[in-house]
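Inverse folding, one chain.
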């Protein structure tokens, strides 16, 4: 049975009726009951257009609508935030906590002047910071805070000149100040404005300046968008600053580095100990220690061992040059102690280095996977070159040169208590025979100068054979482990009345 063939005029009427019904549904105004925060009257401009197109002979109807553009004049923008603990839960008490908003200095990292916020009251205020004061003290039982930024208020910081409080590129430093007696640590977060869109949305970037997470997802940098006057669910979430339990400022793990001696010579062996302890309320996973060995210190791989509260634990060791990485697969419970012991041998190359050994430990909290770290923990070893010393010895004499040849012969007596100053600041005094010596002098070009003020009645003897010795100074090239000589010939000064 074939379907009836509808005439063209009937299909035309059918689509007109369908289109009219569709337009009535789209532009009808339904009655909806909502609860909203009271907002004072504001200037708004709403511009919306819709275009409908249909074909009488086909089955296609197109309806196109542009986005609604809303502009609000002289509105305050509200980035609301909450201060919580490392586990995302509110603190037991917020007594003494305060939040402050600063403009940065030219470096972008240090605090400049406090941001001059526009005061609010009555209908223009938003709880909890109803007066829009800066700094703002948190209520004892509530960790919420907010600052209202005025789009017409100029900034005065060196990096914000010519910008208002909501201009793209404006920068702030949000400071979390704990009470002095709480043991907490101050936190700083840099906030950079990304601009205000025409639909009244403020975008900003928050960057942690201490490397610790800002949000509950563990990010140290995030971008957020908040709407005008209503950011109750859009605020930044900050974390507890520095209590000994459930911290997020890096003080949840501690490491100390020690050695079995304070000074070594080439050929010695040094035993290093790394003591790692969790000091937070949560356990630690994926403990990794990166140790940088000094120049000339070689790791003995077979010596690496570990213990957890006195019980042996496996340590995975990986070495790349002077960098050694220790990995512990077993979790470290709260207050447990992990000890890693290893031995290094000292080679002759060690005397070219500083003897400084540094180690850094990282781990993840077991509850929220936040990364924590401590270090670098530094141990400095004194280096004694022993038989590999490259220092030299300086010797010399001060004598009465009677024949002016610069060399001491029989009958030319030495002069005692003569003073020679060396280029490194050392002061040498001759003995009763006019001799002096200096051990462990650094190799290279060394200079000594005779102090005539220590020889009353004497002056420098002229040298008839070498012009360079007609000077109060002597220059020697001291080879590593070598011997250098400095001789000074003097002669009595001519006194009035003497023949």
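Residues assigned per position:
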């Amino acid at each position: 049975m074939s379907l009836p063939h509808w005439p063209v005029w009937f299909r035309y009427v059918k689509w007109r009726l369908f289109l009219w019904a569709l337009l009535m549904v789209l532009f009808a105004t339904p009655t909806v009951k909502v609860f909203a925060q009271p907002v004072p009257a504001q200037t708004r401009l709403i511009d919306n257009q819709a275009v409908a197109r249909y074909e009488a002979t086909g089955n296609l109807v197109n309806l196109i609508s542009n986005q609604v553009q809303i502009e609000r004049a002289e509105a305050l923008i509200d980035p609301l935030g909450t201060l919580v603990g490392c586990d995302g839960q509110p603190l037991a008490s917020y007594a003494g906590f305060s939040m402050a908003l600063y403009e940065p200095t030219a470096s972008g990292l240090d605090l400049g002047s406090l941001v001059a916020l526009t005061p609010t009251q009555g209908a223009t205020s938003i709880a909890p910071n109803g007066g829009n004061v800066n700094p703002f003290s948190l209520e004892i039982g509530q960790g919420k805070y907010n600052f209202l930024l005025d789009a017409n208020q100029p900034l005065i910081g060196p990096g914000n000149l010519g910008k208002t409080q909501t201009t793209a590129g404006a920068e702030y430093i949000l400071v979390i100040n704990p009470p002095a007696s709480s043991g907490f640590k101050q936190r700083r977060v840099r906030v950079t404005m990304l601009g205000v869109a025409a639909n009244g949305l403020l975008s900003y970037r928050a960057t942690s300046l201490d490397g610790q997470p800002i949000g509950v997802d563990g990010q140290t940098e995030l971008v957020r968008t908040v709407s005008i006057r209503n950011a109750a669910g859009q605020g930044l979430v900050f974390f507890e600053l520095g209590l000994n339990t459930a911290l997020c400022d890096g003080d949840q793990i501690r490491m100390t580095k020690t050695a079995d001696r304070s000074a070594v010579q080439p050929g010695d062996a040094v035993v290093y100990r790394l003591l790692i302890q969790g000091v937070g309320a949560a356990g630690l996973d994926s403990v990794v220690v990166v140790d940088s060995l000094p120049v000339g210190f070689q790791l003995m791989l077979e010596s690496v061992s570990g213990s957890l509260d006195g019980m042996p634990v496996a340590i995975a060791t990986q070495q790349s040059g002077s960098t050694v990485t220790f990995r512990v697969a077993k979790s470290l419970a709260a207050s447990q102690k992990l000890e890693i012991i290893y031995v290094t041998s000292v080679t002759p190359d060690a005397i070219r280095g500083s003897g400084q050994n540094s180690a850094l430990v990282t781990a993840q909290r077991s509850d929220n996977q936040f990364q924590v770290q401590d270090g670098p923990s530094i141990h400095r070893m004194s280096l004694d070159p022993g038989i590999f010393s490259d220092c030299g010895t300086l010797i010399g004499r001060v004598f009465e040169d009677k024949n002016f040849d610069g060399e001491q012969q029989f009958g030319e007596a030495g002069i005692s208590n003569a003073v020679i100053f060396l280029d490194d600041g050392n002061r040498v005094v001759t003995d009763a025979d006019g001799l002096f010596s200096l051990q462990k002098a650094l190799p290279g070009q060394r200079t000594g100068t005779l102090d005539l003020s220590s020889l009353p009645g004497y002056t420098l003897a002229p040298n008839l054979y070498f012009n360079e010795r007609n000077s109060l100074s002597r220059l020697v090239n001291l080879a590593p482990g070598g011997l250098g000589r400095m001789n000074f010939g003097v002669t009595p000064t001519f006194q009035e009345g003497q023949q």
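The chain has four domains: 8-72, 76-238, 253-386, 390-492. The longest strand covers residues 297-308.
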